[in-house]
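Quick log. Single chain, no ligands specified.
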Amino acid sequence: MTNHASRATSCPMVEWIISDGLTGHDEAVAFMEARVAAILAGEADECIWLVEHPPLYTAGTSAKPQDLLNPRFPVHATGRGGQYTYHGPGQRIVYVMLDLNKRGRDVRAFVGQLEAWVIAALAEFGVSSHISEGRVGVWVPRPDKPALFDGSAREDKIAAIGVKLRRWVSFHGISINVDPDLDHYDGIVPCGISGHGVTSLVDMGLPVGMADLDVALRHGFTSVFSQT
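-> predicted structure:
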């Protein structure tokens, strides 16, 4: 576990941990590996872990070498689904260690719940977000920005989702942009998608802090996921 200050609270079956400061990626993976093993062994509750990382890129199982444009930050290969993405300060990472043996062994439904969870949390700030056919993650319309070259409306990505399952227990999870340095995305083609951009809550003009989002995530989790 990170040596930063952390705050843990419990609700039925699910432990919530919020780590202060920046948590290294390797440290996070080690914690998730151990927690998933403990969940599978019946020795630990499910867990939602909220962290921030120092600037880095991660490569999912579908990452294409040509999408790494400028490796200005460390690049971590990871077993989660998806392609390249960026993590850094000002971005809330939500690591999701849930037992799908108890929640229904349906990967597509699980990813749909993660998407619905993000959408519900963002709605608490008046943000209308959605998923888009053929584009992973959660998106927001940007009518304030010029249309794309083909005339289609511009949308920006505000949250990425990439999960891995081990014997139906999940790890990795979600990243939501609160106020990261969006220029740091220039080193990659985020999730292999070009044309559309990346945004954050603060970039959209919303005075939202990390603690505000954490509260909204708790509310959204309760509404989307069964606690029994």
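The first strand starts at residue 6 and ends at 11.
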